[in-house]
Each structure stands twice: as structure tokens, then as C-alpha cells.
Task: structure prediction
Amino acid sequence: MPSFRRLGRARTCPICNRPGRCMLSTDATMAICARVASGEGRGKCGWLHKLTGRKLVESQCLWQPSRKSRNGPPHFEQVVEHFRVSSRDSRLCHYAQRLRVRALSLRRLGIGWDGTAWCFPMYDATRSVIGMHRLHRKGNSLRVPQSQHGLFIPRGFDNRAESVFVCVGPTNCAGLLDFGLTVVGKPIANRADALLAAFLEGKEVNIVSAHHQTSMDGAQRCLETVAPCVSNARIVTIPGGHGSISDWRKETASDRHVERWIAACKRLQTTK
Ligand SMILES: [Zn+2]
Result:
């Protein structure tokens, strides 16, 4: 029998969805709920519930043990696998349409739905999953406890590609994947630039920036971090003052516009 810890006010019970009195085992496989009865028996703190399926994965994902080293980080590979959606999922198709990207490109980034938010796996430079990025419907991202910031690496990423585009966020990344580019996404605010430098060692790197100051500053810092490790790095700017490839395509750009811009970026790199 694992040991149990009280959930406290910051976290909700996986059984009754309320904070406070209930408990979760340190391996996040069982809960003792003070409010909801179960057939597993009742102790002095509440009823024992064995966690299965989604509840199990959510608990493992959200559990924050006080001593990380003893319990280890959550198994994000398992979490990501559990939430993954199929390409025929109507919600995914609708989301892809709204972003003006192909559902397949989102699938290549391992998109999942966890019941409240879209989620994407984040990888380290050896392509192990080290965290999960959750995007709420309104576009703000949500923190997953113990999740580390990593890279969005699409399935089928061509390791031999000499030239790679780098952009911020998974949906931007999907927008460029639609055009057959070799793309890696990174989290905002330069949080994984060192990983990026390690992952793209020796390659030509095009860092995609939006035409506003915060984005350009971020791109500049990224450039400074990756430049010593890659063969060549430059910043390329999304035309027309758009904040993202997705916004650009939604507002004005036809596929031809984007293709012309990509061709211009590639010319930059051959005439350096
Ligand atoms: Zn409870």
C-alpha cells in the first residue's frame, strides 16, 4: 500500500473534484475521497478509490510530490499517449480549420485533448518527452506542474535536413509544416534556446519572428544562443506585421504568398 498525502487547497480531488479533505497516494494510483463512497472500503479519512484511465493519467500528470527525486517526474510519454486524438476526431478538424492549418500537421506534433485544453508534447534534444504544453481555447497557455519547457518536434523530422525553420509555439510550427518545411517549434520567452542549439547543431537555422518588438527581441536572443552551435543562423520576419503564420494566412495570405515568402527566405540562405 503506497503512502497517502492530503491534497490541500491548491489541488482538487480526482474523484469529487473538490479541494481540501481528500488524499492522493504518492504514486498517484489511488485516492481516498472524503465525500464519494466506493466499494473498495472506507477508512477514517474516506473511501478508497483505485484510479484508472483518464483519472489515473491526470493524477499522475498533476501530482506534485514535495520531494521530486524520490517519486520521479510524471511519465509524460504516457500522458501524451493517453490524450492523443485521432486525425478523424471532429474537434481536431474544427480546430485545424479555425487555425487555417492541416489537422495532419497538428497530428505530427502529437496534439492531444485532455478534456479542457489542447496539449502538445515538448521534447529535449534527444527527443525524450520532458513536458506538456497546454493551450486553452482562448489561446492562453496553462502550466502543467513538473513540466519542463522543451521543443515541439514533429514526427518525421528529417535529421539530415541542412536547413531548418524555427518558430514560436506549436500552432505556428504546424502552419509551416503545411508547406513541407523542416520545422522545430520552441516555447515563448527563450525558455528552451539551449536545447534548440543542441538539437540543431551544425544546421542552417531560420528563426521566424513576427514584426513586433517583443518577438524580434526574442528572436535576437535566440540567435545569440544558437549561433555558436549551428553552421549559420538568421532571423526571417513574417511579412505584413502579422503576429503568426496562422494569423497571416487567416487575414490575407494565400498559399502562394507564403510559398513566395519561403522561397525568399531560402534565397537569403544560399546567397549569404
Ligand atoms: Zn474527494
